[in-house]
Design a protein that fits this description.
The chain is mainly alpha-helical. The protein has 9 helices and no strands.
Length: 155
Amino acid sequence: MGRTTNYRSKITEIVCVNEQQRAETRKVVRMLDALEHAGVPESQGFCNQVAAATGYSRNRVSDVFSGKAIINPRFVKALCSAFGLEEGYIINGDGNILTQQINATGTDVAITEAVKVLQRMPELDRWYSVGVLKELEEHPDAFYARHRPRQKTKE
């Protein structure tokens, strides 16, 4: 207990003798990348966190990330569902990494980014921004009518 495993270096050390092994290795690397992007970096308790979220045992999760176990579609589905990851990205590198832009704590990334922006603003600007958001919430059609760029009309 207490040690941090570096699955990324373990998986890249595996000698791949055929295309299937290379594909599995790439999937593991994409899973690690996606989890890090979702706010779940490799650190102490990494496998426990993934196991708790997916319903798989800690040993099975460790075996998958270290290349000792084949990645089955159910594992990918459980991982993607638990952390908001895009299955297409994990399986073959297609599409976005995150499906709903939700981070590991379950917070919408847009909300997190908005808070960061507001924190950097002077207080008066923060209150103005809150007013704009309230106007958008209460009267979206009127707000967008004033703030969306106008389309050029054909002459």
